[in-house]
Queue: 2 jobs
Job 1
Amino acid sequence: MRLAGKVALVTGSARGIGKSIVERFAAEGAVAVISDVVNETAARETLAGIEKAGGRGMVEMFDVGDAAQVDAAVARIVAAQGRIDILVNNAGITRDNLLMRMTEEDFDAVVRTNLKGTFLLTKAVSRHMIKQRGGRIVNMSSVVGLMGNAGQSNYSAAKAGIAGFTKSMARELGSRGITVNAIAPGFIQTAMTSSLPEAVQKAFLDQIPLKRFAAPEEVAELALYLASDGAGYVTGQVIGINGGLYM
Ligand code: NAI
C-alpha cells in the first residue's frame, strides 16, 4: 500500500473530487481525515464507506476560510492522530458572472475559499510537517487558472493565485523535505460542473482532444501519485489533467 501509516487531510471531501481522493488514499492505507463546511451527513457516509472497505479515517467539519476554525481543527487532528503527513487543499466554490455583473461579494467569497483557504491550511499544517521533517501538500488549481474563462474572473484569478502560491511554498518548504504541487483539472464530472448549462458543456467538449470529461477518480489517481513517496523529487509543479483541453 502506497500510503501506509500516513495521515491525510483533504478539505472539501464530503463529495466530488475530494471524496474520491479520501477514498483512494484510504484504500492505500492512509488515515483519511474527511473535512467539509456543510453536509456533515455526507462526510460521515464517506467515512462509513471507507471503514466498511477496511480503511480508517475521521471527520472534522470546519470552514477553510476562517483562520480560528482552521487552527482549531488542525490542532484536533494532530491531537487525535499524532501527525499530518499529507494535506490536499481541495475545497473550492464558484460564483460565476461576467465582470460587469460580478459583485464584490462574489469576488471575495471565491478568493476567500479557494485561495485564502489554501494559505490558512498550508500555514497551520506545514508547522507540523516542518517538525516531522517531511510532508506532501497538493493544491487544487484549475485549467481556467492557466487559460482564463469568460464569466469566471474571480475563480480563474483565485486558481492562478494558487499556482503562484504553490511555487512560492515549494521554494520555502523544500529544504524541510516538504513537496508542494498543484493539480489543474479540466472538466471533471461533479456537482460543480453538472450545474453548467448544456451549451457551455458542449462548447468545452468540442475543444477537448480526448472528447470526454473526466471522472473524479482520475484526479484522485494524480493526487495519490503526488502524495506518495514515489513523487519525492516533484515539487513546485502545476500538473494539468484536462484531456488535452490546454497544453
Ligand atoms: P464540489 O462542489 O463537488 O465539492 C467541493 C466541496 O468543498 C464541497 O463538498 C463543499 O461543501 C466544500 N467547501 C466549499 N466551501 C468550503 C469551505 N469554505 N470550507 C470547507 N469546505 C468547503 O466541487 P468539485 O468539483 O469536487 O471540486 C473540487 C476542487 O476541484 C475545487 O477546488 C474545484 O475548484 C476544483 N476543480 C474542479 C473542477 C471540475 O471540473 N469539477 C475543475 C477544476 C478544478
Note: The longest helix spans residues 104-132.
Job 2
Amino acid sequence: MPDQIQLSRNEFIKAESNLLRGSLAEALDVAVSGAISEDDGQLIKFHGIYLQDDRDLRPERAKRKLDRAYSFMARLRVPGGYLTPTQYLAMDELADQRGNHTLRLTTRQSIQFHGIIKSNLRAAMQQVDRALLDTIAACGDVNRNVMATPNPHLGAAYAQAIDAARAISAHLLPHSSAWREIFLNGEKLVGGEPEYEPIYGKTYLPRKFKIAIAVPPHNDVDVFAHDLSYIAIVEHDQVVGYNIVVGGGMGATHGDAETYPLIGQIIGFCPVAQVCEVAEAVVTTQRDYGNRSNRRRARLKYTIEDRGIDWFAGEVNRRMTTPLQAARAYEFTGNNDAIGWATSADGLHHLTLFVENGRIADHEGWRLKSALVAIAKLPGLAKIGAFIISANQNIIIANVNEGERALIDGILADHGVGQTHSTLRRNAMACVALPTCGLALAESERYLPDLISKIDMLLSKHGVAEIPITVRMTGCPNGCARPYLAEIGLVGRGPGKYNLLLGAAHDGSRLNRLYREDLNEAEILAALQPMIEQFAKTRQQGESFGDFCHRVM
Ligand code: SRM
Ligand code: SF4
C-alpha cells in the first residue's frame, strides 16, 4: 500500500463493518424512526440501497417540526440490463406493493425503486430474490452494475458481450453474504470457513467502480465514461477480444478545480479469455493505489492522472499472466438508441421503446406502466422474449414473433403510448434529481421535458429538427446522465439555474466544454438560438451539432 496521510471516515466504517453488516440488521427493526444511522447509511449502499427523503415535503415538515419523510431507494444488479418478462412483471409488482408505483430505468441499465419505507425493505428484497435478482453491489465502493450494448438479439457478438458482462459481474461480486443475511433469512453463517473478500479485502475499494462493454458501431454505453471499459473487436460476427479503456468518469464539484470529468484512455487489447483477468488487475491496482484519504479524488481517473497512464498500464500488465496486446481498430457512429422496431436475421422482431427519462409510470392518457405489464404477459413473449434496459434509459422488448408484434402495437395504442417524439426528445436524458436525490441543486427529470419542447421550437424554426442532437441534463455536477458527453449539456447550479456545455462528439468520444454559466431558461434559449441558427446556415456536409460547436466555440 502507498503512504496515506489520513484515511477518510468511510474507510473506518468499512473496516469495522464485519464485511458490510454493521448494525443494519438491528437498525431495520427499529420502528421509532424511518431512517438509519449515518454509518449504516454508508453501508447499506453496498447492498444497492440509499436512504432518501422527499425533498418536496421538507419545508412543510420542518415548519410542523416533523422528521423528514424518509424512505429508501433500491437499485437492481442487472448485467447488460437483461430481464425476462417474468422478472419484469415481478419488478412491476414490487413497485406497486413496496415502492412509489413507478419503475425508474437508469443510465446504467438498471431499475430503481423509490419510496420504499423501512418496514418494507426486507419484504422488497425478498421479492427481488424470488425473481432471481438481487441488489448486491449496485451502489457502494465496489464494482457496480456491468453495462453492455443491449442488443443480444441482433447477433452473436452482442450476445457474447452480455455474457462477458455477466462473467465480470460475477467475478467482482463481493463474497460477503451480508445481503442475504440482513434482508432474506437473517441466518448467520456459523462454523465453517470465516468469510473473506479475495479481491476487495475488508475495506473494499476507495470509491465506486464502473465497467461497461460496447459493441461498435454502437457506443450507447458511453464507453469512455467509466473506470474500465471494453470495446468489442468483432470478426465475422464473433468477438475476438476487447480494447481496454481505463480512467473515464463524469463526476465533478462546482468550484473545486481538483475535480473534473475525464474520458478514458485505451491501454491495449485482450483476448476474450482474459476479460475477467483484466478486470481483476485493474480493480486491484485501484484497490492498492486509489486515494483513500479524499473521497473527491478517489476514483480511478485521478489515480491515473496522479501516477500517469504508462505507470498504470505497466501495473496492470504486471498483475496479468500475459500482458495486453496492441489496441485494434474500431469505429463508433453514435451513443444514442435507434427507437422503433428492428428485425433480426432469425425473423424475430425487437422494439426499442422510448421511455422519457426512464420513468415508467401511468398517467392519464399515457399508461406506459400498464402497457408494459400487458406486453410482458403475452404468451409468446413469456417463452422467448426479453425486456432489456438500455444505457439511454429506454427499454427493448426483444424476441417478438410476427403475430405478437401487431398485438404489442395495439396494446401501446390502447394505452395512449405513442412513439412520435421529436428527434431531440428521443436523444435526451435527465438524471432523477428532485425530489428524491439528496444532492440535487436543480430540477432535472421533472423539468427537461418542458425545456425540450422549447429547444425543439428553435430547431424547427431553423429547419434542423430532424438532425439527431444529444441533450442531457443533471441536477448537479455529479454527472449521472453523463451530461459532459452530450452535444448540449445542462448541469444544475441552483434552483432554475444551469451551466450550458456544448461541443461533445456525437459518438461519445469527446467531452463538451463550458459555454455559459448560471443560466435560467430564457438565458439558455437565448444562448442556444444563435448557435442553432449558425449551425443551420453554415454547417459542413454531414457535420453534427457537437462537431459544429466544437469548431466555432
Ligand atoms: Fe449517480 C450519486 C442517481 C448514474 C455519478 N447518483 C447518485 C445518487 C445515488 C445520489 C446520492 O449519492 O445520494 C443518485 C440517486 C438519485 C435518486 O433519487 O434516484 C444517483 N446515478 C443515478 C442514476 C439513477 C441517474 C439516472 O437518472 O439514471 C444512475 C444510476 C445508475 C445505476 O443504475 O447504477 C446514475 N451516476 C451515474 C453516472 C453515469 C454512469 O455511471 O454511466 C455517473 C457518472 C459516471 C461516473 O461515475 O463518473 C454518476 N452519482 C454520480 C456521482 C459522482 C461520482 C464522482 O466520481 O464524483 C454521485 C455522487 C457521489 O458518488 O458522491 C452520484
Ligand atoms: Fe442527483 Fe446530481 Fe446524480 Fe442528478 S446528477 S441524480 S442531481 S447526484
Note: The CA atoms of residues 205 and 287 lie 5 Å apart.
